[in-house]
Amino acid sequence: MLIQSCARTDRGLLRDGNEDALLCDPKRRLFAVADGMGGHAAGEVASAMAIERLESVHPPHTAETLTRAVHAANEAILAAGRESPGRSGMGTTVTILALRDSEAVWAHVGDSRLYLYRNQQLSQLTRDQTWVQQQVDAGLLTPEQARVHPRSSLLSQALGMPEPIEPETGRLQFYPGDRFLLCSDGLTGMLRDHDIAAILADHASCESAVRELIERANQKGGTDNITAVLVDLPATH
Ligand code: CA
Asked: Which domains does the chain have, with CATH numbers?
């Protein structure tokens, strides 16, 4: 099966640097997005470390191998923070997608997202690990209130934090024509799900879809770094 994949990351319009990092490796069938945080460019270090840790992840992928890599990245980031005071408190999200046989598996910490676009429908496969999502789950905020809430980016879990992490994992059978999108919140903060679905519907080409996603997020303000990794499974004819 020939997988088409492409990826882009963009500083956006307001940030000085880019603290997002990504992996797009169709050969190993491994894809990831990490969104770093922390002063003095430490966020960049944390997200890069999360992606580097995936170097050691090879097929066959399982939820366990991905989870192990997430924990190893967390340990490495915590250790680096202890060794270098300027980097203490740095953290990152990480969302990893791996493909095996006819199955997609993922592991996820933070508020980057994995979406599936199938039959013109976009569904979010990961759950945002944020304070506002917890409020939505408890019935205290509506999804719309959560979206515009001043604390919308406050994470309930991230790598590099003192609290132990519990990566969310999932798996799903994939089918010809499925498209998987990994992205940082710089994309989803600017574009609604229906905007993303419309762009994917309009752009059959992987490259042009990703380019358009980034461009549209910048047109809507580009307030954060924007990263998108798109994985297209061939359609059958
Ligand atoms: Ca971000």
From this structure: 4-232 (3.60.40.10)
